[in-house]
Description:
Blueprint: E1 2-11, E2 14-24, E3 29-34, H1 40-47, E4 55-60, E5 63-64, H2 70-76, E6 77-81, H3 92-96, H4 98-102, H5 107-120, H6 125-128, H7 138-150, E7 156-160, H8 168-185, E8 189-193, H9 196-202, E9 205-210, E10 213-218, H10 220-225, H11 230-237, H12 241-246, E11 265-266, H13 271-281, E12 285-290, E13 293-299, H14 300-309
Parallel strand pairs: 3-8, 3-9, 6-7, 7-8, 11-12
Antiparallel strand pairs: 1-2, 1-4, 4-5, 9-10, 12-13
The protein binds adenosine-5'-triphosphate (ATP).
Amino acid sequence: MIEIDRITKTYDGVHAVDSVTMTVETGTITIIVGTSGSGKTTLLRMINRLEEPSSGEVRINGESTLATKPHLLRRRIGYAIQGHGLFPHHSVARNIGAVPELLNWPKDKISARVDELLTLFSMDPVAFRDRYPAELSGGQQQRVGVARALASRPDLLLMDEPFGALDPIIRSRAQDDLRRIQQRLGSTIMLVTHDMDEAIRLGDRVAVMDGGKLVQYATPAEIISQPATGFVADMVGDVERPLRLLSLIPVSEVVEDGAAEGGALPAGASLRDALAACLWTGRTAVPVAHDDAVVGRVTLDAIRARAELHA
Ligand SMILES: Nc1ncnc2c1ncn2[C@@H]1O[C@H](COP(=O)(O)OP(=O)(O)OP(=O)(O)O)[C@@H](O)[C@H]1O
């Protein structure tokens, strides 16, 4: 359990983070979301003491982080940032094994851990362990960055806009991967983003920051259904963007061959209508008709793929 207790950071008399209190349960993903300058990064960096708090404290499993030297603390807390921060002159294996090496793990244990993580991230260890960061795609570099942060099974993984540099499709795959791996390893993750869609999609709990203050800390469903302030409501409004876009695209654009059960939608109906029909009937596809003749179907997968293209 991570307890953040009235933590505050003041720069030149201005509160960048203003008395934030929150508790993060072990084995969960907590997303810190807010606009630029709201204090997200400063809050995250006070947890591993890359920034020292002006007041307040953080306890990890009951122990104050102030009781441990910062460099030792940071070996127990993984940290992944946008642009991955890989060592360019080290192989993938050395990058992932960096913290275990600092902790003096035996070589064979490090090597096994590297292979295990590469496999978890769907990267064949034989093909990838000896490559250098420049020989990887952006998405692969990002996965190696996260694998490195997870390598020593840290008590906590802090991630600052880890997917910020990825294009929308790779980004949503990276989010799915992170969810899957977090569940598999039981990791505790705190992730900073300015993207409410990402927060809703990934978070067990979402912490919304505004002007250095924590204005709401709740489950994604509560954030959407009961936004605590106008600011939270505005941020949630952005989540509807893909839905609004779907309402502009006719089903004729993604219709495919094949049958589906239920009443047919006209070809001029929107993907939002098709999504509503799928959700309403509990089916994964709906038939599409043109001039009363069924011409094919629209699947939930096709709707989702189209929404992600515009996310
Ligand atoms: N070293 C510093 N010295 C002075 N002010 C700082 C320093 N670091 C951050 N700040 C200020 O603290 C506030 C919060 O910054 P922070 O980087 O935590 O915001 P953020 O929510 O992460 O923003 P972004 O999404 O743009 O990264 C900002 O007003 C920023 O200008």
